[in-house]
Each structure stands twice: as structure tokens, then as C-alpha cells.
Specification:
Elements (H helix, E strand, L loop, with lengths): L2 H9 L8 H21 L3 E3 L10 H13 L3 H8 L3 H14 L12 E3 L10 H12 L4 H8 L3 H23 L1
Length: 173
Amino acid sequence: MTGQECVFREKNNDFFSFNDKDLSRLLRYSKRLAKKCDWAMDIHLPLSLFNNGQLSALEAITKYIKEEIGLGYREIALILNRDERTVWGAYHSSRKKMCDRFSSSQSKFYIPIEIFKDRSLSVLESLTRYLKEKLNLRYCQIASYLNRDDRTIWTVYNRAKKKRRANVENVLS
């Protein structure tokens, strides 16, 4: 038995009884999935993706990744650190609202997918925070890129700042 097999059995307290063939298949699958997710962390989403009045930010992300990149629900869930059922629901909701695929127009900015992994912030809060802090955009610019009102963007960004501040205080205490 390899070291990985021992760790796997130890973590699961031998709850699942696998024969060696099943266990090696499961380990190969998990390695393949991990490689796919490592590759997927380099995905950058076009900012124009979020500039539609029909879809929420999560719906737009799941629709884009599923249809344009071709990943499955499980992979999308792992990348976004969400439940697979949430991803499925967001995708199906997006299909009801927008049957067409996204247009392949160029975008001025591209957003790294890894910013959406933090579950302490909503998808829109993560996006707004990235645009404000990393790209140094003004509220009115962010609002026009996301097809939202300036006041909504201000509120979302300040809510994200408060959450981050609270998380830092919780870690320090």
C-alpha cells in the first residue's frame, strides 16, 4: 500500500471499504481532477460577461465556464468553492433567462477566476472588490462595466470591506 492510500484510508477511517483496484482508480481520478482544477485556476473571465441585465454574476460565470470552456458541474464547483447543486441551479437558471451563448467580443479587462473562491464574500462583492482595489477603477466605471447603479456598487464594495475587516479581526483575536 502506498503512502497516499494509507492517508486516504486514515482520513476516511476505513468507512468505505475499497479493494486495491477500486482505491487505485479513485486515486487516479482525484489526481486527474486536481490537475484539471490547477489548470482551471488560470481561467480569466472577460469583464463584458457581467454586463448584461439578465443574469446574476454567478449565473454568468457558470454559463460561461460550462458553455465556452466546457467544464462540468463538479469541476466548476471545485473552482468556485461552491456546492455542485448550487452550480447546477445557477446554470439552469441562466439557461432559462438567456438561451443564447455569450458573444465572442473582446473585453477591456479580464478577471481571474480565483477571486471567486473566497466564500466569505458574495460573487458580486468579490468582483467589485477586485475591480476597485486591483484595477483602481472608480465606482461609476465599475457600475457601467457591470450594468449596475453607482450606489449599488458603492454599497456592495463597502459591505465587502466590512466583511474583510471583520474576518481580519476574528483571525487576530
